[in-house]
């Protein structure tokens, strides 16, 4: 998960936000003052922000010459630089004649067939044998089909591993408490993401499929904020504006984007600019959701939180997390490109960090892009668990790096 203030730094009586050297009083640590700080930054001139990020994050420029990053994220870089079309733009050109009221089994059968056709078409476009301009715009597209399937799923919601089976169309609320209208917390260019993402066009939506006791975005994920309802057309304009301002991607984050998949599919029907989609997720989505993300998401930015189900249930109320996470990482590797975030938790190196890093190396490849993260600090209800009441020690940070090297990972950052 992207922390809305993940690059904040406190120092004495001030706070720095988003890597910008802008200082606010120490009382800005309260949520109200942080929001004022956020709005202040939003109101800075666009030209200032567009020029300053190259100075604030020189690694975001250097990564363009990083061979390991470019090898593992080759297509993402090409879409980011407008050398190739984003997957959703191809999905909009793939014909998918269907009746939204057909039985779900029939819709899924068509979807599975078209997923294979999509992969072939994408390869033809990437190798310059075809162009988007060669393809007519169909009356019904592969993207429309995905949206129709998710719309049916909302009547018996099973987008995530909790499998609540509530009818969201009749205002029943499940674990995530999300309805049918997407609710947005904030939209802005994030300067604190991985270098290849910066500046990242982040859209923070409310609600989450987990309840991590140490959640850094707990006011968003657990509905302590009101947020603002967006229509798909309005949200599409916001995404296009982010791209116009120089964002390298559309970073769908929360909370968790999974409950809002149908609304995101509808939104990208209205987007007419080329922008890579980053699916910034906790990896706890269902098999059906994973299938629908194929041919839509360009870059999977996935958390790999726990190395076993016991820790996942104890800290995040996430039964069967290991099975869901490993399955979804393999699917992401097959149908897109992947950055994996491993947040190191105090006293969880042997039970979580080590098995996660070893599994990545053995199943996804030693050149997989991995961010071993040391940003943990106690938030929300973290103090309910003794080991989560403190930050990492220097030794724990050093041990995590050692574990990544011992696993054979060659493309990890910290």
**Into how many domains do the coordinates divide?**
1
Estimate what percentage of residues fall within beta strands. 5-15%
CATH-assigned fold name = TIM Barrel
Give me the strand/helix succession.
Answer: EEEHHHHHHHHEEHEHEHEHEHHEHEHE
Query: Given the structure, what is the number of helices?
Result: 16
Q: Return the CATH architecture.
A: Alpha-Beta Barrel
Number of strands: 12
Main pleated sheet: 9 strands, mixed
How would you describe the overall organization of this protein?
It is a single chain. The protein is built from 16 helices and 12 strands. With 414 residues, it is of the alpha/beta class. It is globular, with a radius of gyration of 21 Å. The protein has helices at residues 31-42, 46-56, 58-62, 67-72, 74-80, 87-91, 104-126, 142-153, 218-221, 232-244, 261-269, 287-293, 309-316, 321-335, 349-363, 394-406; strands at residues 9-11, 14-17, 20-25, 183-190, 200-205, 228-229, 250-253, 277-281, 299-303, 337-343, 369-373, 412-413. The protein has one domain (9-413): TIM Barrel (Alpha-Beta Barrel), CATH 3.20.20. The strands form 2 sheets. A 9-stranded mixed sheet has the order 6-4-5-7-8-9-10-11-12, sandwiched between helices. Strands 1-2-3 form a 3-stranded antiparallel sheet, with no helix packed on it. Helix 8 packs antiparallel against helix 11, helix 10 packs across helix 11 (261-269) and helix 15 (349-363) runs parallel beside helix 16 (394-406). A hairpin with a 2-residue loop joins strand 2 (14-17) and strand 3.
């Amino acid at each position: 998960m992207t922390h809305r203030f993940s690059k904040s730094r406190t120092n004495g009586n001030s706070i720095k936000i988003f890597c910008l050297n802008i200082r606010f009083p120490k009382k800005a640590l309260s949520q109200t003052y942080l929001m004022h700080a956020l709005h202040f930054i939003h109101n800075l001139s666009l030209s200032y922000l567009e020029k300053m990020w190259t100075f604030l994050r020189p690694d975001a420029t250097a990564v363009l010459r990083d061979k390991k990053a470019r090898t593992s994220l080759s297509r993402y870089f090409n879409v980011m630089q407008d050398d190739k079309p984003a997957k959703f733009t191809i999905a909009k050109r793939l014909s998918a004649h269907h009746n939204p009221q057909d039985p779900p089994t029939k819709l899924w059968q068509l979807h599975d067939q078209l997923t294979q056709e999509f992969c072939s078409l994408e390869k033809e476009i990437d190798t310059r044998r075809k162009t988007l301009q060669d393809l007519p715009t169909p009356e019904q597209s592969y993207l429309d089909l995905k949206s129709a399937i998710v719309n049916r799923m909302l009547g018996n919601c099973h987008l995530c591993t909790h499998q609540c089976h509530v009818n969201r169309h009749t205002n029943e609320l499940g674990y995530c408490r999300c309805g049918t209208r997407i609710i947005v917390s904030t939209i802005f260019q994030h300067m604190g993401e991985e270098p290849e993402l910066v500046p990242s066009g982040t859209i923070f939506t409310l609600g989450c499929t987990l309840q991590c006791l140490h959640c850094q975005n707990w006011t968003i994920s657990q509905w302590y904020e009101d947020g603002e309802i967006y229509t798909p057309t309005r949200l599409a304009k916001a995404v296009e504006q982010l791209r116009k301002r120089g964002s390298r991607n559309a970073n769908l984050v929360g909370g968790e984007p999974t409950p809002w998949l149908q609304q995101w599919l509808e939104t990208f029907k209205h987007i007419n600019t080329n922008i890579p989609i980053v699916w910034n997720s906790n990896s706890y989505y269902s098999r059906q959701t994973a299938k629908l993300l194929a041919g839509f998401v360009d870059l999977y930015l996935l958390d790999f939180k726990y190395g076993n189900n016991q820790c996942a249930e104890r800290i995040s109320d996430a039964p069967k997390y290991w099975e869901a996470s490993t399955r979804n990482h393999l699917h992401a590797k097959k149908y897109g490109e992947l950055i994996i975030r491993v947040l190191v938790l105090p006293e969880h190196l042997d039970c979580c960090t080590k098995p996660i890093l070893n599994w990545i190396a053995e199943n996804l490849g030693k050149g997989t892009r991995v961010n071993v993260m040391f940003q943990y600090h106690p938030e929300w209800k973290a103090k309910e668990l003794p080991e989560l009441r403190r930050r990492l020690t220097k030794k724990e940070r050093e041990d995590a790096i050692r574990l990544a090297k011992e696993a054979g990972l060659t493309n990890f950052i910290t």
